[in-house]
Amino acid sequence: MNIGLISHDSKKKLMQNFCIAYRGILSKHELFATGTTGRLIEEVTNLNIHKYLAGHLGGAQQLGAQIEHNEIDLVIFLCDPASSKSHEPDVNNVMRLCDMHNIPLASNLATAELLIKSLDRGDMEWREIYRQ
Predict the structure, then answer these.
(1) Among 80, 65, 81, 79, which Cα is nearest to 32's?
(2) May I ask the CATH architecture of the domain 2-131?
(3) Which of 15, 20, 89, 101 is an S-S bond match for 7, by CB 3.0 to 4.6 Å?
């Protein structure tokens, strides 16, 4: 499965900790992340991550393009609802595209853990059929 990872600045440490905790599961899949988030995850997990540009430089748009082409199966976007970003329209577009293309999206830690455990159990195999 192809997993997209994105996080607001205030949630990057949480994303690192999440990826450390679920490294075993994540290592079985292809990971895609915005530039800074991907670099920070790689530093603490040694996972191989395909990195886009930083979110504010177009990385969120690159992730959105992969979603539009049905090349992402799951998105974990740890967002900070209390902070507004200049590139917020791009991030909101990622969420909108996930809804349009029926791609599971976690926007908080609780949902991210549910989705990653579901992935490990094989509950996401329907995505492979949906992708074809």
Answers:
(1) 65
(2) 3-Layer(aba) Sandwich (3.40)
(3) 15
